[in-house]
Amino acid sequence: MSDIINRVASSPIISLNMEEFYPQDERVVFDLKNFLFQELVLREKDFRQALKEFDWSVYSDKWVAVTCSADAIVPTWAYMLVCTYLEGVAKGYCVGDLNNLEQHIAELTLSAIDANDFKDRPVVIKGCSKFPIPLFAYGRLISLLQQEAKSLMFGEPCSTVPLFKKGKS
């Protein structure tokens, strides 16, 4: 009787599971609407005072989208001022809605990948995850890896969909 050999584990294939490194921390919204006079007008002095008195610890270790859901004209500096309070408290933040925040998170996370680690290697991008990974993150991952990887596949190492194969040089 011969030993069972895991050929997938001993192959040069890199299995990349975005769930293992994509941030799963809570995403929340900071809505400037709540700091406007009658949810319509920003009064600078009142706004600054309200921000000083606000308990920013509620955003500790969370990803924050800074937005205004009211139909009001809010100066750019107001969003920037909120960001100064989130700096060092929140996990990260961006000005925009939750979709903009997710794109920001994807870009930060994927820009930390060293594409050279995948040079001339076959890569399987795992598709199933318990945590929702946005589609644009997968697209961005392809743009990072396609220049380096020998081939890109999607799925599981035992059952993949081919996406790209580098031509012979």
Characteristic terms for this protein:
four-stranded mixed β-sheet; 27% helix; alpha/beta; 169 residues; 4 helices; 7 strands
Quick rundown:
The chain has 169 residues and is an alpha/beta fold. It contains 4 helices and 7 strands.
Describe the protein's architecture and organization:
It is a single chain. With 169 residues, the chain is α/β, with parallel strands linked by helices. The chain has 2 domains: 14-23 and 114-165, no CATH class; 27-90, no CATH class. The chain has helices spanning 44-53, 76-86, 98-111, 135-145, and strands at 14-16, 27-31, 63-67, 92-95, 122-125, 151-156, 159-165. The strands form 2 sheets. A 4-stranded mixed β-sheet has the order 1-5-6-7, with no helix packed on it. The mean pLDDT is 90.
What structural category do the secondary elements indicate? Answer: alpha/beta
What's the total helix number?
4
Biggest beta sheet attributes: 4 strands, mixed
Gap between N and C termini: 43 Å
Radius of gyration using CA atoms only: 22 Å
What order do the SSEs take from the amino end to the carboxyl end, as H and E?
Answer: EEHEHEHEHEE
Give the low-confidence spans. Answer: none
Strand order of the largest sheet: 1-5-6-7
* Overall number of structural domains: 2
Helix content: 25-40%
Identify the overall geometry.
Answer: elongated
Compute the number of strand runs: 7
Strand content: 15-25%
Tell me, rounded to a whole number, the average pLDDT.
90
